[in-house]
User: Fold this.
Amino acid sequence: MALVTGGGTGIGRGIANSLARAGADVVIASRKPENLEAAKRELAQHGTRIRTLPTNVREAETVRHTVEAVVADLGRLDILVNNAAGNFYAPSATLSENAWKAVVETDLNGTFFTSQAVYPVMKQQRGGRIISISMTLHYRGWPMMAHATAAKAGIDALTRTLALEWASDGIRVNAIAPGPIPTEGVRKAFTPTPGAPDIFTEEHARDTIPAGRWGDPNDIGEMVTYLASPAGDWITGAIFVVDGGSWLKGP
Assistant:
């Protein structure tokens, strides 16, 4: 049984789809209820149990209630995917307090609150998998993304710390750092100026990504599914870069 936050669109939806295709029952949680029903219909084709829950991961109490509802409905919770995130360009010198909080509280706080909420469930079950979605931009720094890079670097550190703390309970904690995947949200976040040229062209991918193509949500979903499988039992505290080699080549 898997819970995917931010599972209604983009990478989260691709992750949920991969898990359902592999046979998992999936709960997709999102702050925007309007995104959930279409995703549910898509996932239902795989024949597993699919549930939806409106959830704001920035609120610890709301997250606890979400986890309680999942367990009450489906009986257990084996896989948590911390995918809910926010991002946008903003100069650091003029970044407002609310803008900073909007990203850090969603990305970093949300990852911690949700991981903390599933811990007692997984501990009682004597095992579980927590997989968080990070990024590669903080490996070298990325102008006008101070809030996002700080939050994702925090997720990497949190992943390693929880992996050590919870290993004896059978809980494996890892993260995945996706490369450029032109979902609707990514296109919006990485086009700071309205009317700017489209950077998400096939030619640009061939020029900038060693693997020669843009990523797809399914690329991340398959990695999540691998880490959630029995093959991932001896993997914990790792951050897997899944980006076609793009961060190694440079911006």
Q: What stands out?
A: The chain has one domain: 2-249. Residues 2-249 form a domain with the Rossmann fold fold (CATH 3.40.50.720). The chain is about 45% helix and 15% strand. The chain has a mean pLDDT of 93.
